[in-house]
Amino acid sequence: MFQYRQVLVRLRQGDSDRDIKRARLMGRPKAAELRALAIERGWLDAAAPLPEDVEIAAALGAHRRATSTISGLEPHRAIVERWFAQGVSGVAIHGVLKREHGFAGSYSAVRRMLAGLRAELPPEATVPLVFAPGAAGQVDFGAGPLLLDPATGEPRRTWCFVMTLAFSRHQYLEFVWDQSVPTWLGCHRRAFEWFAAVPERLIIDNPKCAITRACIHDPLVQRAYAECAEGYGFRIDPCPPADPQKKGIVESGVKYVKGNFLPTRGFRDLADLNAQGRAWVLQEAGTRIHGSTRERPLERFELERPLMQSLPAIAPDLGSWHGVTVHRDCHVQHERILYSVPFTLVGKRLWLRATDGSVSIFEDYRLAASHPRGRKPGQRLTVTAHLPPEAQAFFLQDRAWCAKQAAAVGPACAEFISRLLADRIVERLRAAQGLLRLAKSYGRERLEAACARALYHSTLQYRSVKNILVGGHDALPLPSVSELASPYASAARFARDAQSLFDTDDHLPH
């Protein structure tokens, strides 16, 4: 309005349109339009006072509407307004108008009408949130630089975890490989240790590692994250879905990291990246004059830290929860590592809680099994008591057990078992176990005698010992010592000694 009033004053003084253009107040065509309007309204009468700004604005608006062309889209305005209210895009509106309503105009006409409709909407007002010292922190993930994965040697995306205290704007920065639940919980632990304190609540977005169901009124918090909040004593405050402005402080912090820390720097690996990030937070980000508070974050943090909650005396044992199914081999799998559970739970769906050092498996609320955390994929952690009785017996009755049980039966049995297990071709452990079980049916004395007879006949087989016991041959006396000294003298063997085999017989034909 000030510009229009200046031009009206120059027009009253008799300046031409060219003079007004030369003074850089207004172009000649526009000055000519204003002159015609001023003559029509009587504004060039030097004796009359200049019109008020409201009158000038109303006259200019009416003049523009009278001289403007009518859009070819005007007959379809009601339809466009309805679709605009439903959030339909301009490209889709243009396509439907051409396809179903015979509109022959360009997309520009649709775009201009939508721009006019947006201008008529009431402006959206925002109110910045103000936080008391220690009242809140905000957490977010952002994309980090590409680094070589130490496992594969291929470039891999890193992620930037940022926790910013809402009052002081001091922040914790860490780069990680993924956004999994264990990584999320570990970053929280290290952030609280970095601040040496805990804020009353944390304002977060809705990542899957923290919120399993996003909802404006009843969000469902991930079970492991709920345990973390309970252990450290903070409250979780998820933002409403699709409304990241509620955590604008940390959003700005992530942008600040991307715009001021990452450019112009090189990083050897993830450890080097995090080392440079921590130094940057303390030496540059924490000592700058913040754009909103106009103070240094580290100086404000010195005021905020005494008002924050203290760290718990014993750090909570953070663990992630996973649903698992018990396989037929009485084991569940987590991260390609197998953990045993009682065989009565085969086929059931259980809950597995994994921490840095242990794995616990629950049936509903009851603890079913616990193991130390496995470290290598393919590792199998088995508790023998979890296996079926027959499997327990097999695994408990190993070679050492067989040797011990045989020695308790007698020297002949111990010798028989020793030779049986010394077979270098076939594994004879089951035969040894079965032979020792014969003592339950026939007694130790008979088993010892049967083993002695089998050794005498040099038949080292389970079925030979059992046949001796079944036939009652263990009760027969063994040959005397003199007979044992010359085994080939016994006619029962149907064998000659070596000397008789090699003696020449003169009566045989040559």
Describe this structure in words.
A hairpin with a 6-residue loop joins β1 and β2. This protein has helices spanning 2-12, 17-22, 28-41, 53-67, 77-85, 90-100, 107-120, 181-195, 223-232, 248-261, 270-285, 297-304, 389-396, 399-409, 411-421, 429-442, 444-456, 462-471, 481-485, 498-502, and strands at 136-148, 155-165, 171-176, 201-204, 211-213, 220-221, 235-238, 320-325, 331-334, 337-340, 349-354, 358-363, 366-372, 380-381. The protein is built from 20 helices and 14 strands. The protein has five domains: 2-67, no CATH class; 74-120; 136-307, 2-Layer Sandwich (Nucleotidyltransferase, domain 5), CATH 3.30.420.10; 320-392, no CATH class; 397-493, no CATH class. The strands form four sheets. A five-stranded mixed β-sheet has the order 3-2-1-4-7, with helices on both faces. It has a four-stranded antiparallel β-sheet with strand order 8-11-12-13. It is α+β, with helices and mostly antiparallel strands and 510 residues long.
